[in-house]
Amino acid sequence: MAYFNLIKLNATSSTNNYIKEKRSKGACKDGDLVWTKHQTSGRGQSDKSWQSEANNSLSLSIYKTFEKESPKHPFEISCAVACAIIRTLHSIGIPELNIKWPNDILSCNHKIGGILIENTYKYSRLNETIIGLGLNINQEKFDSLPHARSLFMITKRKWDIETVLNSLIQSFENVLISDLSNHLKANLAEFNLSLWRKKKPSKFYGSEGIFEAIPLEVTQEGNLLISDLEGALERTIDLNQARMLYSKETVLRSPV
Predict the structure, then answer these.
(1) Coil, strand or helix: which one is 178?
(2) What is the C-alpha to C-alpha distance for residues 145 and 51, in angstroms, rounded to an integer?
(3) Contact yes or no for 161/197 (Cβ under 8 A)
(4) I want to staple 105 with a disulfide (CB 3.0 to 4.6 A). Which of 5, 113, 114, 248 is the partner?
């Protein structure tokens, strides 16, 4: 764990925002890892809120700089991180793990975690990134979130949060100290093996409303290759065009 500088907070509004504030003061260093058991105002992709219960969930953020070689595609970061999370959870016995495009971690078809990555560019070059993860550990229920579950709800056992954290740290270190571009092919293959509802008819919501398609694979740019239900027409979609829906999910907000 030599790469990371661990910063434990009793509570914070957002670990990503904590790093941003620290960075604005010139106090951030590559490898800073901020974590807490209580995040009061967490958020996910497209500023969606993240429900976190004090002392029963894990929220963390990692600050990483790219002084020499930066990733060719931003998706290389989220791809590597998602694979590291899946490997860790598999190693501790969490069943039926999947990645719901683009950034949700699922077990038994329910969301147990989410990734939020915020990149900064300098002269059109990816210069630094903040990698955020929220993981549901020991929550016993989720109000108005029928698709959410915790490790406890999945496995029927309580988990030590710091033990889970230490397992994640080891996996993150293995991927973040390496050249992400050199490992993209292997990481992408692993990501696609875990892709939720791969080659199964699925519902999406986009500018054209709700539609059905078959997810085939994620590209190296992070877009999703889909086909129509007959398999005759293929196209790629990005986050600005559509998102995947959970079964029986009610659409009450904008497409992305």
Answers:
(1) coil
(2) 9
(3) no
(4) 113
Range list of β-strands (E), the chain: 5-9, 32-36, 42-43, 49-50, 57-65, 97-100, 104-107, 110-122, 125-136, 202-206, 209-218, 224-227, 234-237, 242-244
Q: Is 9 helix (H, G, I), strand (E, B) or coil?
A: strand
Tokens in use for 195?
């892709």
Question: Residue 15 has which token pair?
Answer: 């670990």
**Mean pLDDT split into 10-residue runs, the chain, 256 residues:** 88 95 95 93 55 86 91 94 98 98 97 97 92 97 92 98 97 91 94 98 93 97 97 95 88 52
Please state, in angstroms and rounded to a whole number, the distance separating the CA atoms of residues 173 and 2.
Answer: 9
**Residue from 227, 226, 221, 255 nearest 241 by CA:** 255
pLDDT given for residue 51 in this prediction: 57
Structure tokens at 189: 């293959």
Are residues 37 and 57 in contact, defined by beta-carbon separation less than 8 angstroms? Answer: yes
Q: Give the chain's domains with CATH numbers.
A: 5-193 (3.30.930.10), 202-244 (2.30.30)
Q: Which of 184, 191, 239 is nearest to 44 (CA)?
A: 239
The number of beta carbons lying within 10 Å of the beta carbon of residue 33 is 24
